[in-house]
Amino acid sequence: MPLPQSRALDRSAFLLAARGEPGPHTPVWFMRQAGRALPEYRAIRQGITMLESCMRPDLVVEITLQPVRRYGVDAAIFFSDIVFPLQAVGFGIEIEPGVGPVVADPIRDAAGLTAVRPVTPADVPYTTDAVKQLVSELDGTPLIGFAGAPFTVASYLVEGGPSKDHAKTKALMYSNPDLWHALADRLADVAIAYLSVQVEAGASAIQLFDSWAGGLSPRDYERFVLPHSAKVFEAMASYGVPRVHFGVNTGELLGLMSGAGADVVGVDWRVPLDEAVRRITAAGGGPKPVQGNLDPALLFAPWEAVEPEIDRILAEGKAAPGHIFNLGHGVPPEADPEVLRRVVERVHAKSARVPA
Ligand SMILES: Cc1c2[nH]c(c1CCC(=O)O)Cc1[nH]c(c(CCC(=O)O)c1C)Cc1[nH]c(c(CCC(=O)O)c1C)Cc1[nH]c(c(C)c1CCC(=O)O)C2
Question: Where in the cell is it found (predicted)?
Answer without folding.
Answer: Cytoplasm
